[in-house]
Specification:
By secondary structure, the chain is of the alpha/beta class. It is built from 5 helices and 7 strands.
């Protein structure tokens, strides 16, 4: 199904931001901001083809704009550096260790919620293309992984 869009920023307030950080190489940063109410997930996605340190100011600017309550990111790659950095800048941040297989997470949570996701206008087209082009062998899965991690978090 094609993505559904909304321009109502208020639907996104008090949400969470999931950061799938990149530290170099071919990976990109996939960022998904979202909230859940009325049986839907309201999401905003960004993709950056650069190191997390270079795009963090823009990510935090969008978190401020959408009045995000919590930023969460995986601890695996950086041993908590990003969480500490975000907290140092005055934001509420939480790290987690990923144990679920990436493809299983995407095919479980992202597919479960995809038809109930409403995207904020201005979501990166490149971000959405990565999700819609996702396969288990996809070269770029950072955005799908971020969206699936957010959906899993909000699914609780």
């Amino acid at each position: 199904a094609s993505p559904v869009f909304s321009s109502n920023v208020e639907l996104f307030v008090n949400g969470v931001c999931q950061i799938d950080a990149a530290y170099g190489g071919e990976d990109s940063c996939g960022i998904t901001i979202g909230s859940r109410h009325d049986g839907k997930m309201y999401c905003y996605g960004m993709k950056f083809n650069k190191h997390i340190d270079l795009c963090l100011p823009e990510i935090l600017k969008q978190c401020d704009r959408l009045r995000v309550g919590l930023i969460f990111c995986e601890l695996n790659a950086d041993k908590g550096y990003l969480v500490q950095e975000i907290r140092r800048m005055g934001y509420r941040a939480q790290g987690y260790s990923e144990s679920m297989n990436k493809h299983q997470k995407i095919s479980t949570y992202l597919y479960k919620w995809w038809d109930k996701m409403v995207w904020l206008e201005g979501t990166s087209g490149e971000y959405l293309n990565d999700i819609m082009d996702y396969t288990e062998d996809a070269e770029h899965d950072d955005c799908a992984d971020s969206a699936a991690s957010l959906a899993r978090y909000l699914d609780k």
